[in-house]
């Protein structure tokens, strides 16, 4: 029950309950899945993210966790909650590249425009990836770890709470432009992040940019959530409102 149960979120990924869905329980995990499950209330809906020839449980994969994390964090969560060590392509073939992007920090050499990042080996020891520009590896791991910690502060959320909309937009822009490089496509969480970014932009009066971001969100959410989903319908309304304000043909 603990392993095969699913957290049930609302359209905005807020947890509303837990359920057991026998069909989805047959699907294996992949950090770069070809299927996604969403919910309409407590009804679970499985949608393909790409074409699957002759779909069957052995050809369909979902992610059991939030895959917008470095490989060592994904593997730790999977091991603690599902008791296996992930060997999917996203954890093996793409791990070093994706980990570098997710934890990237600017090289401390003032003349270098490269970046480094942190990773962990199989024993859990933190390692510093070499700089993509100068190849430097001898600056302290604490340098990268501290900057990554600061980047992960809830800056955007704090700005929203304080109604500092422009600052929230700036942090949101940094977040989604980085995330789009680090998650498999299409990603439901990226679609939701773009949706939220568009709404922040409307609060600043930047309607033309909001419209562009809403369209990006729609391209993702129509695949991951479907065009009948309540959030997608709300997104369609916001796109139409932007087009009216911008005097675009609807």
UniProtKB/TrEMBL annotation:
GO terms for biological process: methylation. GO terms for cellular component: nucleus. Its EC number is 2.1.1.354, 2.1.1.357. One of its GO terms (molecular function) is histone H3K4 trimethyltransferase activity. InterPro entries: H3K4_H4K5_MeTrfase, SET_dom_sf, TPR-like_helical_dom_sf. Keywords: Methyltransferase, Transferase. SUPFAM superfamilies: SET domain. PANTHER family: EG:BACR7C10.4 PROTEIN, HISTONE-LYSINE N-METHYLTRANSFERASE SMYD. This is SMYD.
